[in-house]
Each structure stands twice: as C-alpha cells, then as structure tokens.
Amino acid sequence: MPQLSHQHLLGIKDLTNSDIDLLMSTTAEFLQVLQRPIKKVPSLRDKTIANLFFENSTRTRLSFELAEKRLSADVINFSASGSSLSKGETLLDTVNNILAMKVDMIVLRHSSPGAGLFLAKHLPRFRHSAHARIINAGDGTHEHPTQALLDAFSMQEVLGPLKGKRIALLGDVLHSRVALSNILLLQKMGAHVEVCAPPSLLPRNIQSLGVVVSHSLDATLERADALNVLRIQEERLQVQHFPGAYEYHQVFGLSLARWEKAKNKPVILHPGPVNRGVEIDGKLADGPASIILDQVQHGVAVRMAVLYLLGQTGGSAA
C-alpha cells in the first residue's frame, strides 16, 4: 500500500511530488465516499485522535472532527480555555499526558509558528509516543498545510492539472499561513503563482519565493486562472496597514463588476471566514464563479486522506 514519506504533516515544504499525488488521489477516493448514503468507513476504527486547538477555529476544527468520525476514529476535543494550561502547565506536559491515554494522532492548531515541529522533535522523549502522529492545523502566521491541499484539490477539480496554470493570491499575504502553504504547494504542482496586495500587506523579500508581485488587482485579474482571496486578519494587525475597510475595498476589493471585466473570468476561492464588502463582494462570493463551498466539502475529504495515510504504519521520521 502506498504511504507518505513522513510520519507527520507539519508543512508543505517536506512533501515530495509522490506524496502530493498520493494525497490528491486519496482525496478523490474519499470524496466519492462522501457522496454515498452511508458516508462512514471503518478505516481508523482502532485509532484515537486528539484535536488540540489553542486558537479559535470553526471550519478547520469541525472539518477535522467530521473527517475523523467519517473514518470511525475515536475523537477527543481539547480546548486551551479552562484547561490546565491556565494553571501553568506547559504544552509538552499537556501533550505528554494526552499521549499517556494511548492517543495515536494529534491535530494541533497553535499561535506559535513551528509548534507542530517543536512537538514532533520532542516526541521521542515521551514514553507513550512511539507511533504518535502530529498534524499541523495552522501554526501562527507560518503554515496551514491541509488548507493548501484542499485549495489545490478544489482548483484541480475545475481547471484540471495545475501545471502551467496562473494562480493568484489576493489580500493579506503578510499575516496569512494559508498564503505560504499555497505558494509552496502550487509551485510544487507546477503552477505560476502571483501575489496581489498593498506593499504593507506583503512580507519583505516575498520575491525570494519565486512569485510574481502585483499591486494592481485589475492587472492580476487579466492573468489569473484562479484567484484565492485572503481574509484581512484584523486580529493579527499590530499597526494600521491601510486607511480603512472602505479604502481597501476600493483598491483591492474584488467586486462583481471587476471580475466581469476580466478576460479569463478566474475561479474564485476563499479560505473563510469571508469579510463581505471588504476583500470580496457578497454577490461574487455566492455566485457561479465561486467554489468556496466546494472548498468546504473538499476540506473534509482532504483531511480524511491525511488522517488515513498517516494512520498507516511505516514512514520515515519527518
């Protein structure tokens, strides 16, 4: 049986082309399962999975939990609020105690970049962690690998193979973990990646990632086959990066009129939640060009694929 080359899913950087192909083909199989009257399979019925979310989340947390239940796994949901962390317990102690309960996988969302890698490196110290797997469900502003996988799968379903396609990321690239994971994955899949944002919402030296940088949404729309609209992450803004929501929408907001003028009529994606009237008009988000709800459905299938493949024995240490 084909397996991933790593024990953990910590980021896109570590994935090989064979890993990506396997994840995409396995996702397609589980998407078919989700179309059946009975959507549950016994693939992980002997596994226990703990969802550790140290940041607020709706879509990702629910998507992982549903994927786990569709695979017949036993599920533990952990929330940092009200836990022993508020009493001074460390992350490592918390995870060590959870693993002592014979947990097989940990799905981790954390505000600190590299939190998943930190845990993976410390697993050998834990008595009960010999076969535990770590899945990064978002680490600060660093990466969100399963979101990138579901975005790529969603685009592939509409556009076909992504090699040679022009994919643009629009919006708050600076604070977006989705952006980095998308850039890395799309380039591995042979796509040309462009980022479009005001200079204040782009990381320094973003060109070093091999992307095209644009400050003109209209020009980007003329080139793009697909446009992934990123949310303005106001909760992460330490300073004012633009005058206001109205001004941002006038220059970088994706309106229906703007999209209709574009030659290619790009497919529209959004990782959610959508700030209607800021980064995108509601009519466009709900219109026929949008595959936002398809992304949500594909997210369950992608996470089923990740959990299933990591649940198999074998693989080298990440």
What can you tell me about this protein's structure?
The chain has 318 residues and is of the alpha/beta class. The chain has two domains: 17-143 and 297-310, Rossmann fold (3-Layer(aba) Sandwich); 145-296, Rossmann fold. The protein contains eleven helices and nine strands.
Cα gyration radius (Å): 20 Å
Mean pLDDT: 90
For the record, the count of structural domains works out to: 2
Helical proportion, percent range: 25-40%
CATH top-level class of the largest domain? Alpha Beta
CATH topology of the largest domain: Rossmann fold
The largest pleated sheet is described as: 5 strands, parallel
Structural class: alpha/beta
CATH architecture of the largest domain: 3-Layer(aba) Sandwich
* CATH homologous superfamily annotation of the largest domain: Aspartate/ornithine carbamoyltransferase
- Characterize the overall form: globular
Brief summary of the model shown:
The protein is of the alpha/beta class. The chain contains eleven helices and nine strands.
What attributes does this structure have?
318 residues, alpha/beta, Rossmann fold, 11 helices, 14% strand, globular
